Amino acid sequence: MTALPPVPVYRAQPIRIACVQFDPKLGKGVENAAKVESMTARLQPGMLDLLVLPEMALSGYMFTTPSAIQPHLEHPTTGLTATLAKKLAARLRCHVVAGYPEAFSDDEPVVPPRASASTSTADDTPIVTAPPADPPVFAEINGTGTGTGTDPSLPPAPPANGSHANGTHLLPPPPSFPPKRPNGPSHPLTAAQVGYNSALIASPAGEVVGNYRKTFLFETDKNWAREGSGFMHWDLPAPLGRVAIGICMDLNPEDFISPWNAYELATYCATNAVDMLVVPMNWLDPREQDSDSDSDSDSDTDTHSDTGSDGERVPPRDPNAPSINNLNYWAARLAPLHDPAPTYAAAAPPGYDGAGAGAGAGAPSASAPPKEVVFVSCNRAGTEGGTLFAGSSCVMTMRSEPKAVELVEVCTRSEERVMLAIVT
């Protein structure tokens, strides 16, 4: 039997992670919540450190107009997703990350729309643009996958029944990246924007302790959502440590026109000595990127080859296997976390112990042991509005010295299951 690698000095115990990959139905929030509860019913208290649900987990994703999504927008601490996440977190005694469509607060400012190709000019005018081109292929992924302050993005919360160990209701506000602009996000609020594509963090105490708003919007998001003000992280109790959250498109170059090697989200994680990156997703199957593909099919069992937009043959899609293209792409987009060229070899900034006990200022120490970062992607499966999603939820670990990307666990494209992974 092969010996397990030693636990890094900043990780005193293994991390137990679960991702709920399933096929939510558009606009069926209550039914989707019941399905998640049923799927997680066999999980026992104390067996997890982190449970992750997909992007917009209970609402579904393919909303084409503001009026279509309006009935499904939620309050970040009392909405349907928050209620479910708090219930699961309290029962399982773990942290829960879940994506949801966040409603604007009552005092959200509305400004005149800016003339731009990226914004809608009418309340119910959907925006349709071409999806991204096929990504470059990462060389190789090892492994088989068998195995207080007040958070500025949260409105005032209802009175809490308890408090955290540090005596605060919410964790201190984390820094953001890209830097917040003096006038807010680069795309001003318009009449076509009715909320944010967000993800919340619920604690074992059954409280919402963090809220993140998607920074880079996909074209579907731009039908109704406003961009967030920048990437964020939280220092959570051991063994989670410093946790950053991104949402799907945040992994891509901004608007697909930013330089590939800007690595915006990964650079933020490296700069801020993040221990774990959690990304709820509604990531498309790679063949959805090809206009010649059968993306209008509702079948999850199509396995024939096709021709991509570049004229090359697209390999058959096996619904009972993960999307290797997507796994490679995600790893490639996180190059600063595992490529010695940009270097991410330090364990943490001075004063940060990697276990959520505190954060210090300053650059990581060059003499510190190589840092290993945990990447968690929780994607959905199935089809919605003729669009096929890639599934392939996974947990990877990444380090730069020696350079390595290890696949700890992965789902297939089409399966619905609670994926369990233990990172040692």
Automatic annotation (TrEMBL):
Keywords: Hydrolase. Residues 291-300 have a biased composition (Acidic residues). Residues 15-424 form the CN hydrolase domain. GO terms for molecular function: protein-N-terminal asparagine amidohydrolase activity; protein-N-terminal glutamine amidohydrolase activity. InterPro entries: C-N_Hydrolase, C-N_Hydrolase_sf, Nta1. Residues 301-316 have a biased composition (Basic and acidic residues). Residues 105-187, 285-322 are annotated as: Disordered. Residues 171-182 have a biased composition (Pro residues). Pfam families: CN_hydrolase (PF00795). GO terms for biological process: protein catabolic process. This is Carbon-nitrogen hydrolase. It comes from Apiotrichum porosum.
